[in-house]
Amino acid sequence: MQIELREYQKQDFKTVETIIRETWHYDEFSSQKTAVKLARAFLSSCLTNYTFSRVAVLDGKVAGIILINDIQNHKCSFSNRLLQVKSILSLYRSKEGRNVSKIFEKVNEIDKQLLSESNKSYPAELALFAVSSSFRGKGIGKMLFNHLLSIWRKPG
């Protein structure tokens, strides 16, 4: 089993979108059409908030992804921001999309509240970490996370 780690590429989008849908079970609480839009909106938002990426590829297929945001060095590309806006607008066009998105708005509010109550600031954040269900149990998530730690660990 040969796992290749490489940077995220635009052609990975659809596969990662599918990984997100299956990981967070979007199809279980919304229609397939809304689940696709929700995964697209979530992924496009993650892509606006990353500075470092690694994609695990096994047998030529994207098996997992990790995105990190180095907060001080973050710069969002115009194309990623535009994709995010288009994806969110597409989701909000339907009543179901608007209702489902409220769940994520509440999660974001809770995240912000927890962070503010911690009275700490962090130099980086995990923007996305997911492994396809068909590749789980092969050590791919562990490999992605350990690779990240080996790069981001600061001496001392």
Largest sheet: 4 strands, antiparallel
List the strand order in the largest sheet. Answer: 1-2-3-4
- Taken in chain order, the helices and strands follow as EHHEEHHEH
The residue ranges in which pLDDT falls below 50 over 5 or more consecutive positions are none
Radius of gyration from the alpha-carbon trace, in angstroms:
16 Å
Would you count the extended β strands for me? 4
Q: Span from first to last CA?
A: 35 Å
Number of discrete helical segments = 5
Question: What is the residue-mean pLDDT, rounded to a whole number?
Answer: 90
How would you classify the helix and strand content by structural class? Answer: alpha+beta
Q: Specify the helix fraction band.
A: 40-55%
Beta-strand percentage?
A: 15-25%
Shape: globular
Secondary structure elements and pairings:
Elements: E1 3-6, H1 13-23, H2 32-48, E2 52-58, E3 61-70, H3 78-92, H4 95-118, E4 124-131, H5 140-152
Antiparallel strand pairs: 1-2, 2-3, 3-4
Description:
The structure is a single chain. 51% of the residues lie in helices and 19% in strands. The chain has five helices and four strands; from the N terminus they run βααββααβα. It has a four-stranded antiparallel sheet, sandwiched between helices. The longest helix has 24 residues, at 95-118. It is globular, with a radius of gyration of 16 Å. The termini are far apart.
